[in-house]
Amino acid sequence: MKKLLAVLFAAVAAVTMCFSLTACGATTYKDLSIVEVGGETESFGIAFRKGSDLTRKVEEAIKELIDENKLSELVKKYGVAGVSEYEPAAASNENSGDFKKIKDKGTLVIGITDYKPMDYREEGSSEWIGFDADLAKLVCAKLGVTPDFKEIDWGNKLLDLTAEKIDCIWNGMTITNEITGAADVTKPYMENRQVAVVLKKNADKYSGVNKMGGLRIAAETGSAGESFIKANASLSGGLVQVDSQSDAFLEVMSGKSEVAIVDYMMARALIEG
After folding, report:
1. Is the pLDDT of residue 26 over 70?
2. What angle do CA 260, 261, 267 make, to 5 degrees?
3. Would you state the pLDDT for residue 27?
4. Could you report the per-residue pLDDT of 105-141, keeping only the tens digit for each?
5. Angle at CA 114, nearest 5°, toward 110 and 116?
6. Is there a single domain that holds both residue 162 and residue 222?
7. 10 lies in a domain?
8. CATH code of the domain in which 97 resides
9. Nearest partner of 272 among 75, 107, 29, judged by Cα
10. How far apart are CA 248 and CA 245, in angstroms?
11. Is 14 part of a structural domain of the chain?
């Protein structure tokens, strides 16, 4: 009975969400616009536990894929900005035992979120695809293991990594001082920046950071977007924390927030793709 009620409540919630989006006139990503906010170029890396030998192993695999033009193929496929030159730089840490652990169990547990074009699933499919997902599959093939994609709470990513709930964080992760202080991170393999997303009808009204003061601005907890908002005094008072970047888009589409600060790659894939 409890299970039936849970299903019914979920169905009602879904219908309510659909109705609310329809009512506000923003039912698709095409009703949104990207607004540049002067976000600096960011670098993406893959995080492993401190002292892990996996960092170097994965860097070496990525180097091989670049030399084989496999990375450039993924860059073209997903329309992202990957690097063309790459030299492994992490310490080998040969005695850490992490590589042996994943070889023994046969899987690499990869912490991700639903984040197009990096990691996502097509409607009706259970398979994770995207630039990072496809790259991870290629890297795992070189390591002789199978990727095990595990959705995580992005705000707890470092806790999950330290607690060995996941083997790495590989999900369009911006390299920050917080990350490098708590984990070993690969050399950057692609670039990104933060942008604002607003309803298309409001694009002129909210055309820059100087016009967003006092607005409700959504961002994923623990994300580069959240850091961007907190670093701008005129915006920080309006921060609305949400569980994912997808939720940040929905905040704007439903009218709960006027602005979302998100990764450019995701905004481009959803709005212009």
Report:
1. no
2. 85
3. 55
4. 999 999 999 999 999 999 999 999 999 999 999 999 9
5. 110
6. no
7. no
8. 3.40.190.10
9. 29
10. 5
11. no
List helix spans (H) across the chain. 2-23, 54-67, 70-78, 98-105, 131-143, 157-162, 177-182, 224-231, 233-236, 245-253, 264-267
Strand partners, 107: 146
Contact yes or no for 85/166 (Cβ under 8 A) = no
82: Cβ contacts below 8 Å, ≥ 6 apart: 71, 72, 74, 75, 131, 189, 190
Tokens of 2: 């409890």
Same domain, yes or no: 161 and 100: yes
Average pLDDT, the chain: 90
pLDDT at residue 211 greater than cutoff 90: yes
Do 224 and 124 reside in the same domain of the chain? no
CB 20 within 8 A of CB 254: yes
Helix (H) or strand (E) holding 259: strand 259-263
| Whole-number pLDDT of residue 177 | 94
- 3-state DSSP call for residue 204? coil
Q: Which residue has the higher pLDDT, 17 or 34?
A: 34
∠ CA 19-24-25, rounded to 5°: 100
Cα gap 66→84, rounded to integer Å: 7
Residue 113, C-beta contacts closer than 8 angstroms, at least 6 positions apart? 119, 151, 152, 154, 171, 220, 244, 245
Q: pLDDT tens digit string along 89-110?
A: 999 998 899 999 999 999 999 9
